[in-house]
Amino acid sequence: MGHMFIINAPYLFSTVWSLIKPWLDEATVRKIHILGKGYKTELLQYIPQENLPSDLGGTCNCKGGCSLSDAGPWNPQA
Prior knowledge:
Order of helices and strands: EHHEH
Shape: globular
Number of domains: 1
Structural class: alpha+beta
Number of strands: 2
Helix content: 25-40%
Strand content: 5-15%
Largest sheet: 2 strands, parallel
Number of helices: 3
Radius of gyration: 15 Å
Strand order of the largest sheet: 1-2
């Protein structure tokens, strides 16, 4: 896994995460990012704006929606 971003998670999630985190490997914990309302700045450190869906503040507008798109290096036609 590269990085996983959880955006605008409810407060309860953050509480549960703080309880679970000590039992996980430190390398895994570093890859999981819990982001609040000001997520765009940190997200853009990892994902180029042209690859970030427009509903998350980027400029990507894939046909049919970025979340359902199969675009990526594995599928150059998408």
